[in-house]
Amino acid sequence: MELPKAYDPKEAEERWYAFWESRHYFDGNVNERKKPFAIVIPPPNVTGELHIGHALNNTLQDIVIRYKRMDGYEACWFPGTDHASIAVHVLIERGLAKRELDDLLRQIGYPVPQEKRPLTRYDLGREYFIKLGWAWKERYGSRIREQLRALGCSCDWRRESFTLDEARSRAVTEVFVRLYEEGFIYRGDRLINWCPRCQTVLSDLEVEHEETEGQLYYIRYPLEGGDGFVTVATTRPETMLGDTGVAVHPEDERYQELIGKFVILPLLGRKIPIIADKAVDKEFGTGAVKVTPAHDPIDFEIGRRHGLKIINIFKADATTNEHAGPYRDLERYQARRRVIEDLKAQGLLERVEPHRHALGHCQRCHTVIEPLISTQWFVRMKELAEPAIKVIESGEIQFIPERWTKIYFDWMRNIRDWPISRQLWWGHRIPAWHCADCKGITVARQAPPSCSKCGSKNIAQDEDVLDTWFSSALWPFSVMGWPNQTPELKYFYPTQLLSTGHDIIFFWVARMIMMGLHFMKSIPFERVFFHPIVKDERGQKMSKSKGNVIDPLEMKEKYGMDALRLTLAALCAQGKEMRLSVQDIEGYKKFLNKLWNAARFSLMSLQGSQLTDFSCEKTSLGLEDRWILSRLSRTIAQTRESLERYEFNHAAKGLYEFVWHDFCDWYLEMIKPRLYGTDVATKTPAQQVLFVLLTDILKLLHPFIPFITEEIWQRLPHKTAESVMIAEYPKVRPEWLDEHAEQTMHRLQTLITAIRTIRSEMNVPPQKRAKVFIKAEASDVQQIVHDYKIFFEELAQAGEISIGPSIERPKNAPRMVLEWAEVFIPLEGLLDLHQEYKRLQQELKKARAGLEATLRKLDNPDFLARAPEEIIEKEKRKAREFKEKVERLEQNLQLLQG
RNA sequence: GGGCGCUUAGCUCAGCGGGAGAGCGUCCGCCUUACACGCGGAAGGCCAGAGGUUCGAAUCCUCUAGCGCCCACCA
Fold it and tell me: Of the four, A44, A211, A280, A577, which is 20 to 30 A from A119 by CA?
């Protein structure tokens, strides 16, 4: 079947995806006759849009899963999306405030007010808010799925999950209850990170530190009973309203007499003690520090050690409360200004210094974090982390690249308890019920009829939801139906690969390992591949505001998805970032065009052939056949090895190189005479080999560029499978390896290139036949020229060829000097001797340098004594070759001058 | 403050102990019936710097410089 002149990705991509799906190729089923290969998708946020990072990660996963599927595994890729508790919550709040969600509100039956702006979640109430969340999910949730399909992802869509769906919620509840019963989950007062905008607690990971230009304020605290004062330094003067002590280092001579005395807190007049604590740094500031246990993590610890009072001066929105006395009901920075003004007025502000320090910001809304004391639910992590450290140490789970293990260990060995409650509405509600009478808490899988402590029916469910990463941590087994003991769990768990970005190694990877080990008693995945972060061509992060984003769907529109996929694979080296530009995609698109045309040519050449035998019997094969089969075998091996190591760049580039340069540039050109000819004895084997090459190339490339390979596959005259997607991935064929053919071919290529170089440099018109003289002593070189004359004629436009050991350079003939031959082409016009001289000089210089370097080694007794035998042999051979080349060049230069 | 990574051809990067590579870009010549999204050819590099290990270093070790990232409770 013939191919159209150009490939149209738009039409083909959709058609083939539908075809694959209708044939159930994506389905992974429990199948005891096959080995399973499972991947669980990192669930994109349900309201997300497919960005280039998704495109990369999901392309890589699809490459692996398609490869494994073709290679005989029962492959299953579990898809799904994440409810993204806080991210979605914040988006909805924003949408409400801007009144952008009115239509959704009407849809869920909420009486939308005319005027009110901003609209808040408190106006809606919890029930409507959650309804709105689901309506939102319905509207936007399918978008990301459609985009993954456009990418070509061969997910088993029957198994799609959502972290907030019923089955996953059951898993969440089960895990919470069990961890609570086992004592891992507790509720307590801790100093936590509070986002005053989102009005929720955040884990340390959700806080981003940023260097900020701030000020260090030196404030005098008068000593009790008269003269003198202690000067403390602080970046947050307003928190002095909550000070309950002043601390110095126990060994600080300056303050020895003051320890145990009291100061009077300015502005509020509270009497607070001076205490000694080793946490204080003598060198910083004045060596005396104000202690605000309610609003600073270190102070909290100091306060605890010394039994200091805890005075919280902030409300949930970080405005001051009644404890701030005259400064109550002020926004925190306003309070700071007022406090400073008043201190200054009272002469208690000694000085202010500029001071750079890191400030925590909310990951979602970028508001400055306020450390606060609050009652929250926590998971005790230490004990859960220990086995999770061991499985990495032992290699049971392998990180790729390996360096991420160190980062993992550092975090896991210093792990802190995980605050899991969030004061949000969109998410998994905590399965705990508080009793208004006895204040007891009942944790249960379902709403209990009464308090388990006192039996009172006066109970209400905890208001909080769980950190979104809590459900993500269960993902590898929750998508397989846990807590039910499903056949899928038994067969597909643990999965073989997790592919993700390194930015969520703590958020997600570490927690999945801990939860998997705890609840499944086994690792969740065998390998974790950390893909690089995609940056623009200048190494800058892509962002909409910078206008440097590369939108996958736009690229699909312009170049086709295969082009993007291949580019991403080809650039995916195991570094930390990948620089991507549209030009790269354009470049790989050209490869697809090349492939398309090579396929067109091949199919045309196979037309009408009655091929039945593809055994490629060596006896009937030409040099070029044996060579390309040998190269194919190596390429298969290299592709497989690279894929096993997740070296996608090597796999993609190896195939690119092989297809373009070996197959197209040399092989196809070399077999043209046979294909155009009518001699069945040479034509048929060429067609056989061509067919084998084409089918194997399609199969090898299919995981990278599924659409175009299928489009071509379907036009093959003798399909070995109804789809390339389910064809068997090529296996290494050792019997095809042919060192001799490769060596001979290499010499042939070198000679042809030498002729082409002379022709090109001397401006011999391309179509003009040229007489060629080759001086070569070695009989095998003479043999090559003799046997493969046709290739010199076809590929180098050679006319008559004279070869022999005593060939003389004809007059007016520029030359190429090789290690084992000299090539001359007589010119009709005048030869530019100067140019020729320069070129030969340059080559001589190189050859001499090479010779010297080699001889230096061979003259070194240590080298001869210590280097391995084969290296010495190699150096000797090199020396001979260089020497010969140098001699030939010298002779030629001499002749040139003479 | 701790840790990690990078520095190779004009650009983007491979190579990570034995003769400096690719793609893009540049230059030259070609519309040769698969492909001008192409074909053929060429130019271009003391592999950041300094020490060390080794018979041998772009490749391993140490230090320095520049760039980037992550973690962190010096107020």
Answer: A44
